[in-house]
Design goal:
By secondary structure, this protein is α+β, with helices and mostly antiparallel strands. The protein folds into four domains: 85 residues, no CATH class; 85 residues, no CATH class; 167 residues, no CATH class; 140 residues, no CATH class. It has 21 helices and 14 strands. It has a seven-stranded antiparallel sheet with strand order 3-4-5-6-7-8-9, with helices on one face. A three-stranded antiparallel sheet has the order 10-11-12, with helices on one face. It has a two-stranded antiparallel ribbon with strand order 1-2. A hairpin with a 4-residue loop joins strand 4 and strand 5. Helix 5 runs antiparallel to helix 6. The radius of gyration is 26 Å and the shape is globular.
């Protein structure tokens, strides 16, 4: 919830007891009421309107604090709120979204112990809150089951265990907890955009219109999605003047072919683990409390098209957090940094999907998507000392077909490109340095690489999604003459080729001018 930032400020400045006591009247009282309401301990009087900012710390609020303290075994009469009580309230509130995910999850629970499973992080957080602090999720769950006399689930997670988790968490929450999920504290979509009409249809669709343009989204728990219509190739034909002329044509073709495996320029979804995903490479807000690539994309828009950014995002209260770099970061909403799971959950609402989709339709924003995709090569392809590899990737793979395969994997499983290429090099260890390779040598390495990437896993996540199908699509582009297997056929920037000089007439790729590897950190997930 956005009101919690004020309460966190009190904890950070050690000023809880100075500001929150019986009969105090200040800007911190209402956020405390809202917090206790979200936990099920407080009910707002009907006469209290949302326009009222300062509230009085009265006996109604005091009773709510006392009930919370009793349930959480905290001493004191509550007349002067203790810092520990406030900390515990915020801790309880932060666990609620994780609990809701566990309660409402309806998909396959098989494999819940793997980090890639949607339930892994929520289960870890909930069990940690309940003070099961073993080294890994499996150990925590096993002790939880022993304590409750339940059978430890080696594969699928049954409803009985989830019910026990809910009951254990509920011991710390108020009786009105479930009824307060959508209290008056949460702004409705109509509050944010009064002219927006949102209608749910019987066929699992949500129709949204602002009176000028309409979008029909498909529901998919816990959010919605729109597959999109705008392909990179068509955009390049339609708006050539908007595209950065420094990007080589063959690089644009590589981006286009990889985008065919990922998404359209106007694609959007709010159902996956990263809350809000947009565009050709499905840039997101970031999983859990992690930074995401979407804020970096928005930052590019703000820098290149500041006036349009002001038109598109400022009325919605969206801005970019200061720490956002060219790769990842966080957005802010009404000045508050959006980083917690609960804050990000709000962006699953159809309201946000609709407004981001309207921006995704703009040619300038689509052009920035392509530039952002182009910059991605700087995060892995041009690194001078890639982890575990004897040579930079730009020396190992130089065909447009091969580079497309690398980019394709980097979008889907970024942390695995280096180890997969490393294994492919090991299978062809008799080769000399890349300076002496021709098309046949690179082709052999790519053949090895494709077999490896189809099944490779580091144990944390499942193997690359649809690896063979994705490779086959890119292979069709090669057959159609859109990509080439010829070594030296990739070009990153227009007219960037440099000759090998005494090493013959073959050509090599060089890092872009002014490239600083430290400005483009590795993308691991």
């Amino acid at each position: 919830m956005f009101y919690t930032s004020l309460l966190h400020d009190l904890l950070r400045t050690n000023s809880v007891e100075i500001n929150l006591f019986l009969y105090a009247e200040n800007k911190y009282v209402r956020p405390l009421q809202q917090l206790l309401a979200s936990l099920g301990f407080f009910t707002f009087p009907k006469k209290q309107t949302s326009e009222q900012t300062n509230q009085i710390f009265d006996h109604t609020l005091l009773k709510a604090i006392k009930r919370f303290n009793q349930k959480n075994k905290i001493s004191g009469d509550g007349a002067r709120l203790k810092a520990y009580s406030l900390w515990r309230m915020l801790q309880c509130q932060e666990i609620i979204p994780y609990l809701k995910i566990i309660e409402s999850y309806t998909d396959v629970t098989s494999g819940w112990q793997k980090e890639t499973h949607f339930l892994y992080d929520p289960l870890l957080k909930v069990l940690s809150f309940l003070e099961y602090t073993e080294d890994n999720l499996s150990q925590r769950m096993e002790r939880f089951c022993i304590y409750h006399g339940l059978i430890f689930p080696t594969d699928s997670l049954g409803t009985t265990i989830r019910q026990h988790l809910t009951e254990d968490i509920s011991k710390y929450l108020g009786e009105r907890f479930n009824a307060t999920e959508n209290t008056e504290n949460k702004p409705s979509d109509n509050d944010l955009s009064p002219s927006l009409s949102i209608i749910e249809t019987p066929d699992n669709k949500i129709s949204i219109t602002d009176g000028q343009i309409q979008l029909v989204l498909t529901k998919k728990d816990p959010g919605v999605y729109w597959m999109g219509n705008e392909e990179v190739g068509i955009f390049l034909q339609r708006y050539p003047a908007v595209v950065n002329p420094e990007i080589a044509k063959i690089c644009l073709q590589v981006i286009h072919q990889v985008a065919r495996n990922e998404g359209k320029l106007d694609a959007i979804n709010t159902y996956d683990q990263a809350f809000l995903s947009v565009g050709i490479f499905q840039w997101t807000l970031g999983t859990s409390t992690n930074a995401g690539e979407l804020p970096a994309l928005l930052k590019k828009v703000k820098i290149k098209y500041p006036e349009k950014y002001t038109t598109w995002f400022t009325p919605l209260g969206i801005d970019i957090a200061e720490e956002t770099d060219g790769t990842t970061g966080f957005i802010t909403l009404q000045g508050e940094r959006i980083a917690t799971l609960e804050q990000k959950e709000a962006f699953r609402r159809p309201f946000w999907a609709f407004h981001f989709w309207k921006v995704l339709m703009q040619p300038e924003f689509q052009a920035i998507q392509i530039e952002h995709a182009h910059d991605r090569f700087k995060n892995f392809y041009f690194k001078p000392e890639p982890k575990g590899l004897p040579y930079p990737l730009y020396q190992i793979i130089t065909s447009s077909y091969g580079v497309a395969l690398l980019l394709d994997m980097h979008v889907n499983r970024p942390g695995w490109v280096y180890p997969c290429i490393g294994l492919a090099l090991a299978e062809n260890a008799n080769y000399a340095s890349p300076d002496h390779w021709g098309t046949e040598e690179e082709a052999q390495i790519l053949d090895s690489y494709l077999k490896i990437r189809a099944t490779y896993t580091d144990g944390r996540y499942a193997a690359m999604t649809s690896a063979n199908e994705r490779a086959n699509k890119i292979g069709l582009a090669k057959q159609d003459g859109l990509l080439s297997r010829e070594r030296g056929s990739f070009e990153y920037l227009a007219n960037q080729w440099e000759g090998f000089g005494m090493k013959g007439n073959r050509q090599m790729i060089t890092p872009p001018p002014g490239y600083k590897p430290e400005d483009y950190p590795d993308i691991e997930e």
